[in-house]
Write a structure and sequence with these properties.
The complex is a heterodimer. By secondary structure, chain A is mainly beta. Chain A has no helices and ten strands. Chain B is built from 14 helices and 29 strands. Classes of the chains: A mainly beta, B alpha/beta. At the A-B interface, strand 4 and strand 5 of A face helix 14, strand 28 and strand 29 of B.
Chain lengths: 128, 665
């Protein structure tokens, strides 16, 4: 089994979408989230590696992320993010774009992130 | 040079009609079928001890039986003393059946060897070969600077700044060609670990000055022995072996005799000079000043003008195993190129080989299931490593200078597994000894100074031993366990790229005068310097665990495997079935293939892993390579060490280029 232990933390306040979108469609992702699983839509098996990812989205549109894929010490990343309606994009601190933009949704304290390929659905649970 | 076969042919002709002697006076047909009993003589009487011959008897033969049939000897004694609790294991390696025959006055070793070979109760006869130190023995005194106020360095030892081999800033006062980063990359490691007193490194060499002010606190202490009472308190066969033993002279460890160069003391300092004591130099695994360095066990095999013979080295190595050492540090060997296959080495030196195997099978720490043997490659400047280091299973270390180029003296090529700083004198502008390796020395033989410079693969070797010891300490701290093979593989793949430096020529001058300068064609070293230069930080990261490599689904792609095989992976020879496209097939099990939905056969080429996953998932790829050369050492040829790494790959539909740094999003 692919063991997922990741969390998404959003630091900030206010109830806007942070990007000037329409209030009635704004997604409120404030708070702390914990990833509970990945659903693979085009594959049946994931394998044996343990993956731990923690992402903190700050209100100033910066983020920090710690990831551990299998063995070894966590790798740390940071950068910026932007949310346009339901589309989340971002760049790492060296200016390189994320590997994908994501369609995001928050419902019942669960954040889902679906990459452009729609091949996987990453699910984060709100922490605390 | 007379090789072994020629020697045997020469000796056999006049002896075919010779009356056979035997413990039981009966012929052994099996030996007769192998061209006579002289085939029991494993080596030739060149560069050997003239006072003794080594004899292995068949099982069940005792000393009296051997003595009764042997002519020309004054006495017969067991090579190894009985060590309570260790004999069963020693017997499994045949160590209990080795004897040393002392040649009687007026007799020659050749006649005793022949006499022994004719005995039915004798299985092997070995001339007692002398090993040579992998250093020219020259040493240059160094006076430490006075201790000044803390300047932000991790340790307060005043001479750390002159140890370029640990931290090389490219300081041109070392050499005009000094190259920043030509070191062992250990500085940041000292923030993770600095040693562990339960890890013991046996320095099998000249006597280590255990009273040295910068070594004393890191010397191993045999708590079972009462110092100086003349009694073998712990009944291990050696009297007053408190910090080790002088196996050459069978007594206290010594370092002040004529011919002593401080070689063993210098090596000991590189591994574990006491750190953070406001004194002298730093040792790689010398602790943080809180009695937490690794320990040095002195296993003296050279004594003054007396070189180590086969029985002496074997006893020292077995002692290291029995008394708790995790690593044997061996900067000695036989002339390079003399033997060019593993089988010949094993056959010529069966006693030494058995002792090393015994050591490597002995577990003395919580991390490994055995010990690690580390050897210098030798200073002949030849394209072969010297044995024993050249043997496929032993880590063999060649040398580079502060210019991050091969040192002019270093052996290279088959048998060399990895390189480390060995120092080099007389680089332009010719006027400095600072390009050598700085460590502890014996004031008695070093113009009154406790420190000094030396060069050689002898000096490169303890850098790897020190890093290995540091690695064991770190693994212990993390609660990790490895097999000896896994740990060796991690050491020799913790390497930095070196090949790109091997272009053009290098100027050097072993005479120390600019007008005598010579040039070294660097091209001849290509693919001949092992897996690259040792990197302490990389080893620690391997011990922590190497993260999975990220791949993207739906595409064929090349994956960088330098985290597993070092940044010189592009220069390594990978092993496996060769595919039509020239790639080397790698192993992945059915579960992994299914998980990734591999669309093509994965393979290694140009140092990278080719994969084409169609599904999100993960798999482990088993990849094999050769550390040192293009051929694995074998009974047929001298060669490199086979290393295996298990590479974990995770494939998803998302992968950020991110300059190769990865990133989940």
């Amino acid at each position: 089994m692919l063991l997922i232990g990741a969390s998404l933390i959003l630091c900030g306040c206010g109830n806007g979408n942070g990007d000037g979108g329409k209030d009635e469609k704004a997604i409120d992702i404030t708070g702390t989230w914990e990833l509970t699983g990945i659903e693979i839509t085009k594959a049946a098996q994931l394998g044996d590696e343990t993956i731990e990812v923690t992402i903190t989205f700050n209100a100033d549109k910066t983020f920090s992320m710690s990831q551990m894929l299998g063995d070894g010490r966590p790798k740390e990343f940071s950068g910026t993010w932007a949310l346009t309606e339901t589309t989340l994009t971002g760049k790492y601190s060296n200016g390189k774009a994320w590997g994908s933009s994501y369609t995001v949704n928050v419902e019942n304290a669960v954040l889902t992130m679906i990459p452009e390929t729609e091949a996987e659905i990453y699910t984060y649970r709100k922490k605390n | 040079m007379i090789n072994r076969k020629t020697f045997l042919r020469m000796m056999m002709l006049p002896l075919t009609a010779m009356a056979a002697l035997s413990c039981t006076a009966e012929l052994d047909p099996s030996v007769e079928m192998e061209n006579g009993r002289l085939a029991k003589i494993t080596n030739t009487p060149e560069n050997v001890c003239q006072e003794s011959v080594l004899i292995q008897v068949t099982a069940g033969t005792d000393a009296a039986s051997l003595e009764s049939g042997l002519a020309g000897m004054a006495a017969v004694e067991r090579v190894f003393p009985d060590v309570p609790g260790k004999e069963e294991k020693a017997a499994s390696f045949g160590l209990d059946r080795w004897y040393k025959a002392i040649v009687a006055e007026g007799h020659k070793i050749e006649s005793v060897a022949k006499s022994a070979a004719m005995l039915e109760c004798v299985s092997k006869v070995e001339y007692n070969t002398l090993a040579v130190k992998a250093s020219d023995g020259r040493h240059y005194p160094y006076t430490p600077a006075p201790v000044t106020k803390a300047d932000g360095r991790i340790f307060n030892d005043p001479s750390l700044s002159d140890q370029w081999h640990y931290i090389n800033t490219g300081d041109k006062s070392i050499a005009a060609s000094a190259y920043a980063g030509a070191d062992i990359n250990v500085k940041d490691v000292w923030n993770l670990v600095t040693g562990d007193p339960s890890i013991i490194v046996a320095v099998v060499d000249e006597g280590v000055k255990h009273t040295h002010p910068d070594l004393a606190a890191n010397m191993w202490v045999n708590t079972g022995e009462i110092p100086g009472n003349g009694i073998d308190d712990d009944k291990n066969g050696y009297v007053d072996d408190v910090h080790g033993y002088n196996f050459r002279s069978q007594g206290p460890i010594s370092w002040t005799g004529e011919g002593d160069s401080g070689h063993g003391t210098h090596i000991a300092g590189t591994i574990a000079a006491v750190n953070n004591n406001r004194t002298g130099v730093v040792g790689i695994a010398g602790g943080s000043g809180n009695n937490d360095g690794v320990k040095i066990m002195g296993c003296q095999i050279h004594d003054g003008m007396n070189a180590a013979s086969g029985d002496v080295t074997a006893k020292a190595i077995r002692y290291a195993a029995d008394m708790g050492a995790s690593i044997i540090q061996c900067s000695w060997g036989y002339p390079a190129g003399y033997y060019k296959d593993d089988k010949t080495y094993k056959e010529l030196y069966p006693l030494e080989f058995a002792a090393i195997e015994y050591f490597e099978s002995t577990k003395n720490n919580s991390v490994l299931n055995g010990g690690i043997a580390i050897f210098a490659s030798g200073n002949d400047g030849l394209a072969y490593a010297s044995y024993p280091g050249a043997y496929k299973d032993y880590i063999c270390v060649s040398a580079f200078g502060p210019d991050y180029l091969p040192a002019y003296y270093t052996n290279y090529g088959p048998g060399c597994n990895i390189i480390a700083p060995g120092g080099e004198a007389y680089l332009p502008p010719w006027d400095s000894m600072k390009g050598l390796v700085l460590s502890t020395l014996c004031s008695e033989t070093n113009d009154g100074e406790d420190y000094g410079y030396m060069q050689g693969t002898s000096m490169a070797c303890p850098h790897v031993s020190g890093i290995a010891a540091l690695g064991l300490a770190y693994a212990k701290k993390l609660g990790k366990k490895f097999t000896v093979k896994e740990f060796k593989d991690m050491i020799v793949t913790s390497a930095n790229e070196f090949e790109s430096r091997l272009d053009g020529k290098k100027t050097y001058d072993p005479s120390g005068a600019a007008d005598g300068a010579k040039t070294l064609d660097l091209g001849k070293y290509r693919n001949m310097m092992g897996s690259g230069s040792i990197d302490a930080w990389t080893l620690m990261m391997k011990i922590e665990g190497v993260p999975c490599i990220s791949a993207i689904t739906g595409k064929n792609q090349w994956l960088d495997v330098s985290d597993f095989f070092g940044t010189s992976s592009v220069n390594l020879t990978f092993i496996g079935e060769e595919l039509d496209n020239g790639g080397i097939k790698v192993e992945v099990n059915a579960k992994g293939r299914e998980s990734l939905g591999l669309a093509e056969e994965p393979y290694m080429k140009n140092g990278r892993l080719y994969v084409h996953p169609t599904k999100a998932g993960s798999a482990k790829f088993t990849v094999r390579a050769i550390a040192g050369g293009s051929e694995i050492g074998s009974d047929a040829a001298i060669g490199g060490m086979e290393v295996t790494q298990e590479i974990s790959v995770i494939a998803r539909s998302v992968k950020s280029e991110n300059n190769g740094l990865g990133g989940w999003l």
